[in-house]
Amino acid sequence: MKLYTRTGDTGDTGLFGGTRVKKSHARVCAYGAVDEANAALGLVRAAADLPVELHEHLERLMSDLFSAGAELATPPPRQGKRGARLTTQIDEGRVAELEGLIDQATAATPPLTSFVLPTGTDAAARLHVARTVVRRAEREVVRLAAQRVRVRAELLAYLNRLSDLLFAWARLCNARAGRGDVAWKA
Description:
Layout: E1 12-14, E2 20-22, H1 26-45, H2 52-72, H3 92-107, H4 122-146, H5 153-176
Antiparallel strand pairs: 1-2
Helix pairs in contact: 1-2, 1-4, 3-5, 4-5
């Protein structure tokens, strides 16, 4: 299979199911931003100082994001046509799992007393970058939903919690390395 098809050379792309849309379409922007977030998690996972227990969690998060992108790239069947809507395993239970991970990381770090700068260890800095990329993906998915495109509430909640988790993990990486958060000074 070739990596290039030349079918997108005029600025359009194919969604799952064959529908062609402009690459600037809100659906493409949403799943593209989720793909960027996934790549950012890959960069986090490559950090030499990342606590080993986060590797497996990150792999699962990356699989979740890949599935979320596929769900976002799948439009509903056209009116009068039959077809299945692709949905992921991202549900209320998966959102609750992220909340549990946030709670664990928060319990292992000092209380948050100020805004913190997105820095610290290599892993922490990468987690902060990934957090902001996930927030952008969340905004793009919200923009898609605002165009009366059906987006499952669980998918939005998942992206929201994921960015919170990445923040909590950045703080955890700094704490484990004996480095405190760098407080914002106005």
